[in-house]
Structure formats: structure tokens, C-alpha cells
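Record type: monomer structure entry
Structure origin: computed from sequence
Chain ID: A
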Amino acid sequence: MSWRTIVISNRCKLDLKMGYMVVRGEETKRVFLDEIAVLIIENNAVALTACLLEKLCEKKIKVIFCDGKRNPCSELVPLHGSHDTSRKIREQIKWHDQIKAQIWTEIVAEKIRNQARFLQELNYETESALLNKYVSELQINDISNREGHAAKVYFNAIFGLDFTRSRDCAINSALNYGYSILLSAFNREITAAGYLTQLGICHDNTYNFFNLSCDLMEPFRITVDRHVLSANYEKFESDEKHDILGLFSQRVEIEKTSQTLLNAIRIYTKSVFDAIDDKDISKIKFARL
């Protein structure tokens, strides 16, 4: 099972040999492809062979390309992720609005519960209680926007009353970077399962290529928030970006087992599709983060 996040920071050539990715730079190194879950190309002077790209797609390895500032700017999305992709896409197009609304309500409830638990860990008892109250008030499809109200209380508590998500600062840079890498992990699982990332459950932005990924990732955002708060970054540059990638190997609990975050995302994503197919929201397997 793949588990490694590989970051290519220096100028080099990447090619394929005998099931290994060969990194030819100042030194030549090899990485077994079956171990790689995510490959991040930070340096825009890196060259990749077409045969390696083909094998990366075949192995369902998520490849993320960065811009000149080493921020994620694009990713490799295979055209076919499963042998029955055509059937699954036809089913996805016909997903009923009622089950989508039920799934979204459960996702929002879990997201707010995770935020409330984190606030309780930080001894913000009043704010935690308020978020739990929002969960109890949640209506189908979150028509009263409890998610938005919870976000305001939550971010003001952990980052201060003067904090806004639009401010240009190290905290927001770290959050944005962490969320973008998290989003890519969901893109990988969705396409590997044979579904389209464009067709969301709640998110429906014409210009968003990853509507479904944005839906499913919501309960997992807390992992990035917790890390960024703990790290207390004064700047967010190359070393800090590498530090935040350690999130993927952290252990979380799901289905009474200890899994890496990447494996938990895989289990959770599949369970959402099972819940939609069987019209049974009890099949969703949330992780304890």
C-alpha cells in the first residue's frame, strides 16, 4: 500500500526503470513506485519522462506541480481511474438531490463536531458548547448556514478576534497550502474510484474543477488547522511547507483501527460513495481526528 509523500525540490530528471522512479540530479536515487502516494514537484526546472507520467497515472499516484514560489498550481488528473468509470459517472450524474442533501448535512455536522472537539482541547469551553449547539440546530442541507456561523466562532477563538481568512499572513499561507494538499489527496481517491471531481454534492461552482473534493474534505480541515496552530509559523517558506506535509503520515482512528491520514481519507471517501449508492447515510465512516 502506498504511503510516502515525495518532494522534488532541486533541478533533476525523473524517469522510470524497473518499477522505480529514478531521480537523476547531483546524485542518482531510486524510489519504488508502489510506496509513493503523493509526488510533489516543487522546482519548475524538473524534467519528467512520458513513460514515468504514464506509470504514475496507472499507479494512481497523485502528482502535484508547484509554481515559482513553490505553491501548488496544478496536478495530474488521470482520464480513467477505474475499469467501470463510465458506469459510475452515469450514476453520479443521476445522484438524487435528497440523498445528496442528507450526505452534505452529515458532512457539515461532522466538520462542526471536529471543530468543537478541538476547541474543547484548547479549553475554549464556551465556544465549544456554542458549536455543539449549532450541530443540534442543523437543518437538512444546512439551509440556515450553521457551518458559516461555526467557522466565524472557531477561527476567532483559535487565531484571535482580528484574524480573517483574507489577510496576507503566514497563518493563512500555511492554511491555504495545507488545504490545497489535502484537496489533492481527495482528488486522488475520487478519480481512483472512477468518479468526477467536478460534480459535487453541495459545491456547484462552474469554475471549480474539484467541487466533489471540496465537499468531502470538509471534516478533515481540522488536521491542517491543528498543525498550523501548533507550529505557530512566523513565516511560511520551503522548510515550513515540507513540515506541513508530515500531516499525511500522522495516525488517526477510523473504524476502530489506527490508520495514516491518507488511508483514512481512502476509507472515508469510499464509504461516502457506498452511502450514496445504498441511500444509507449510516454507512459513512468518519475518522476521529
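Annotation 1: The chain is about 45% helix and 15% strand.
Annotation 2: The longest helix spans residues 97-121.
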